[in-house]
Request: fold
Amino acid sequence: MPVKIHLPPPWRKFVNNAETVEVNGSTVGECLQNMFQTFPALQGAAPPTGFEIHINSERIFSWQSDQPVKDGDEMILSSISGCC
Reply:
């Protein structure tokens, strides 16, 4: 199921300057894992706790990686101030 991930500006250089990428997964964790597998350069660029995650407009926390997502959801990754 495709989910669109909006990337913070510093990460875009690792995905050909794209603002968004599409990944597959049924949970937040699966989507992030798919993104890092598809774009391995992001693994070194993304600190494990240096970003916030929103699904559509709802903020979720890193320990909620089992939060379900559905086809067409949009995940927004936001850099935390002083990071990335």
